[in-house]
Amino acid sequence: MLANLRLTLRNLATLLCLIAHAQATYKLQERYSWTELDFAFPNPGLKRQALASGDYIPQNALPVGMEHWGNRLFVTVPRWRDGIPATLTYINMDHTPAGSPELIPYPDWHSNTAGDCANSITTAYRIKADECGRLWVLDAGTLGLLNTTTYPCPYAVNVFDLRTNKRVRRYELRPDDINANTFIVNIAVDIGKSCNDAFAYFTDELGYGMIVYSWEQNKSWRFSGHSFFFPDPLRGDFNIGGVNYQWSNEGVFGMSLSPIRSDGYRTMFFSPLASHRQFAVSTRILRDKSRVENSFHDFVALDERGPNSHTTAHVMSDDGIELFNLIDQNAVGCWHSSMPYQPQFHGVVDRDDVGLIFPVDVKIDENRDVWVLSDRMPIFLFSKLDYNDVNFRIYTAPLSTLIDNTVCDIRNNAYGPSLFRQADVPNVAPSSRNYLTPVVGTGYSGTDLAKAYVFNNGMSYEIGSGGPHLFPRYSENLKNTVTTRNSDWWARH
Length: 493
What we know:
Blueprint: H1 2-25, E1 29-34, H2 44-53, E2 65-69, E3 72-76, E4 88-92, E5 104-105, E6 124-129, E7 134-139, E8 156-161, E9 166-172, E10 184-191, E11 198-204, E12 209-214, E13 219-223, E14 237-240, E15 243-246, E16 252-257, E17 267-272, E18 277-282, H3 283-286, E19 300-304, E20 311-316, E21 321-326, E22 331-336, E23 346-351, E24 359-364, E25 369-374, H4 377-382, E26 392-398, H5 399-403, H6 446-449, E27 452-456, E28 459-463, H7 476-481, H8 488-492
Antiparallel strand pairs: 1-26, 2-3, 3-4, 4-5, 6-7, 7-8, 8-9, 10-11, 11-12, 12-13, 14-15, 16-17, 17-18, 18-19, 20-21, 21-22, 22-23, 24-25, 25-26, 27-28
């Protein structure tokens, strides 16, 4: 009997350890999930009618983008197949804080009419809510995917006032902004000195370019003469969710914007989908349409992330922490941009071999909460989803929780500002903006390149040339100070 009791206690202890391990492993908390997407039709009769006519085919709907603002969580559903009743939708989180809610068309059903180019959104991919309370939506204007694609409408930038739910602008991209292969699926929004000083950036994944739109000028232009927008021919093979497939022609895709730097501009970080690299350029270059043809050397190539490191969406926090979806690893990665862009300074904030199969979008909201959407896209496209299983999930967690105990949390590890002598930090008041290290090769002056910025509990300090830089090697003083589990990095550099 005593032996049985001991065995029972041992089993209980093992179970508790497993539970604790699971809780420690999964930082992202599932908020919403669906076996298949459902939509909030005005009444059950119209829903039955749509199902009968083929206007609504639940198994054809795949979520690819999301954004959080206020009490709403927006979800986009491209019209890749027939039977998608709405492409731009949202969840009222006050009414449905969790579960498998019906998606509500935004701003209404009429505005989601396919082919009504001037008044509606035909197909939306990723979207962005800015700090001025506007939702930026690029209507791709397409129906179908790849060889089934038709083009009933032109590419058009649509901007909605989230307080009134009214569209405040529609801008059609110029013919020179696109080409025969154009496939624009991502957006980043850059707010400068005011809400009018706003730029949107769009990556042309298959046309290999980047389109810039100025809100104030109401004009757009295209950067396309750069090999960094192209896929890496050695990185076109993918193995995700038990499916092997080749996306060898997938070019520039994910983007993230740094906080505003000391010169008033940000750094744009971007990655092709078929690549293990990230690249960078100052928005000073992108904002200047005269630099479209003569800015090749202003773009910077960073180191490879390492094996199995294809990424989809990126995002960067206001204190310089970049998150990126690692689709090969069913994971979300991180990098603190005050560190060198090298694998040993990259972390994994969460991994889930069931729930995070193909994390397709990631966002950080105004409360510094992270939102991640996973959708099993390769299985949807190249195999067949099991609609008895959960296929689509939206997770959330505070950013501080995600980076805790990772290399990206410089507040609590050997990489952080505590490495610097107090004398190195000027006695200045915290800035209202968080600045990052200027990027080598982006056109900054030599004076700017001799500066570095570090972060401490959300405050930014400027230090002298003896501190670390984003891309050059660290100074000898810092090298001699560091004791870290990655100390072998110094031996190689």
